Amino acid sequence: MEASSSGKTEPRPAGPKPKRDLTTGPIGRTLIIFSLPVLGSNILQSLNGTANAIWVSHTLGPVALTATSNANQVFFLMLGAVFGITMASNILIGQAMGARDITLARRIVGTSTTFFVSLAITVGVLGVLLTPHILDAMGTPPDARAEAITYLRVIFAAMPFIYFFSYLMMAQRGTGDSRTPFYFSLMNVALDVTFNPLLITGWGPFPRMGIAGSATSTLIAQTVTLAVMLVYLNRTRSILVIKPSEWRLLKPDFGIVRTMVVKGLPMGAQMIVVSLAAVTMMGLVNGYGSDTAAAYGAALQLWTYVQMPAMALGAAVSSMAAQNVGAGRMDRVEKVARAGAMYAILFTGVPILLILLLERFVLHAFLPPGSASIPIAAHINSLALWSFVPFGVAFVFSGVIRATGVVWPPLLAIVISLWGVRVPFANLMMPHWGADAVWISFPVGSTATLLLAGSYYLWGGWRKARILKPTVPQGAQPDTGMSPPDGAEESETRAQAAGVLKPAGR
């Protein structure tokens, strides 16, 4: 028995604990320990993209880099589209694990596995067939079109492995395990970085594949890492592994599928909204010439790493809050939000200060010494860099809100702050302030995001929302998955009565 925020004692859920129990222990320390591997994974992926771009540009030239840049826009869009659904699966699993409802957790895992395998294969096949049409619709430069087609077709062939790998990474975090996904991210990046130059240049016994080699290294890295991950999860008896004796769980529960899609699409749409706003801002910047565009590009490279701690904290608080929501511990959810907001200010503020102090040195990593773009980039940072502090706090609040299954208010906050505030502000003030209007629009938009997300966090109805209804009453012993068949049937009957699962055949 534990005391709730109202002073009453509440029974703790019985049953097996998640991989890492996020419903007990010190909140600040647990949040940091959980978020650091997520941050490490994000940094690894960014470094991998940078390394691949360097190899392509230095060995194959600017046309090949243009080809991969165009193809990667499609790749990132496809990942963004599925991100929301993987996040919804993460939250579903997290809530079920927090409630110690293993029966429901395994039903979610079984349905999610079937859903993501089917989606991944469909996207991969259609993508390979439609690659030329997709690139033509993007207006890919003619001199880069052939290489872009070659590269993107291999990427689409890798998409089934990429999608399922992404789902398993998120699902493990839902069970409370952020370290294992980090280790497999490290393995994936190490393989990709190793094979990339070998297959591009044909070093030693490897074939010289040119631009196709860069994409093939991604295919090899994802396939090998996914295979090793599945072996590991099977040997550790992870809840995410569906054994042959449990294949009935792979039959899709369309109630769960509907929940993943309905809750996931708005989260995926948020990434698309942000990407479209970024493209729009780049168009505004391009109007001020190549020196300003280069300066903005260098600033963007730095901003990628500045915002990573906040994004890692946002993912961590979502997983942590989801388990506590499932456990009925809303008092801890509030504390998770406060701790996450404070850490977002700290871990975003420190790199901002370091960049401002060492600006001339860090900008030389992206711009040649003496470049006219360096003072412009420094000026951009002086006006826009601090905007990532309110962005980080808003990202944490949105992560906590989404953990309860409330997904539309965070999306609306982003839409309003970007398309109702940032972009109109920049367009309205450019005749008066010039390019400074673009840079100032970043803190203006981020402040609007924080005000909207913070207001809904304080006064919205998200605290009463739930994605799942427990299949067992609070304090009762849930089905652990080890009971005889009649116990499993009884658990499913309770689930059907609660409105979570549909009877088979309906």
Give the structure's gist in a few sentences.
Keywords: Cell membrane, Membrane, Transmembrane, Transmembrane helix, Transport. The protein has 506 residues and is an all-alpha fold.
Structural notes for this entry:
The chain has 506 residues and is mostly helical. The chain folds into two domains: 27-252, no CATH class; 265-469, no CATH class. It contains 16 helices and two strands. It has helices spanning 27-60, 62-98, 102-137, 142-174, 179-201, 211-235, 254-286, 290-306, 308-326, 330-357, 359-363, 373-384, 388-403, 408-433, 436-459, 485-498, and strands at 2-3, 9-10. It has a two-stranded antiparallel ribbon. Helix 1 crosses helix 9, helix 2 runs antiparallel to helix 7 and helix 2 (62-98) runs parallel beside helix 9. The protein is globular and about 60 Å long. Residues 1-23, 472-506 are annotated as: Disordered. It comes from Phenylobacterium deserti.
